[in-house]
Amino acid sequence: MPKMIGMMRLGRDAELRYTPNNEPVTNLSLAYAHGKAGQDGKRPTQWIDATLWGKRAESLTQYLTKGGLHCFTLDELNIQTFQKQDGSTGTKLVARVLDVELGSRQDAAPAATPAPAARPAPPPQRQAPAPAPRGSTGSGFDDMDDDIPF
Q1: Could you tell me the residue range of the domain that residue 99 belongs to?
Q2: Which of 68, 74, 102, 147 could form a disulfide with 95 if both were Cys (CB 3.0 to 4.6 A apart)?
Q3: Is residue 27 one of the residues assigned to a domain?
Q4: Would residue 140 count as lying in a domain?
Q5: Rounded Cα gap, residues 57 and 41, in angstroms
Q6: 69-85 in b/e burial notation, b at 16+ Cβ within 10 A?
Q7: Is residue 111 one of the residues assigned to a domain?
Q8: For the chain, how many structural domains are there in total?
Q9: pLDDT by residue for the chain (150 residues), tens digit each?
């Protein structure tokens, strides 16, 4: 079976659903730009209907949002025919996703992920205590703080 590896942009947010056997599957609409740019400066786009299965579908769906540019490895590429609303026959390219390398989220809608926590301020630097004078018999514990939590 033919395989395809390339950078592809998501045309819409990934849609997670479950089969009757409760197996997770994510539907993806991928845009693959290929060939030379035309006079308008744009390269032709091949749209691919793809599916991602299993635990990876559940874990990656939240990151696969419209406009995101990621590297996909596709397998089982084939052309399917379908009936259009006007009654004519259409064709589409479909594939199964083997692997995804998350890339740019530029132009992508933000995913529903929590914002990173603010980093706490570093503790203030303490000056080292002055050395005990010669001949002192002190244990060196007199200059320690009493607010040590242990």
Answers
A1: 4-104
A2: 74
A3: yes
A4: no
A5: 35
A6: bbebebeeeeeeeeeee
A7: no
A8: 1
A9: 678 999 999 999 999 999 999 999 999 999 998 888 888 988 888 899 999 999 999 999 999 999 999 999 999 999 999 898 999 998 889 999 999 999 865 544 444 444 444 555 555 555 555 555 555 555 555 555 555 554
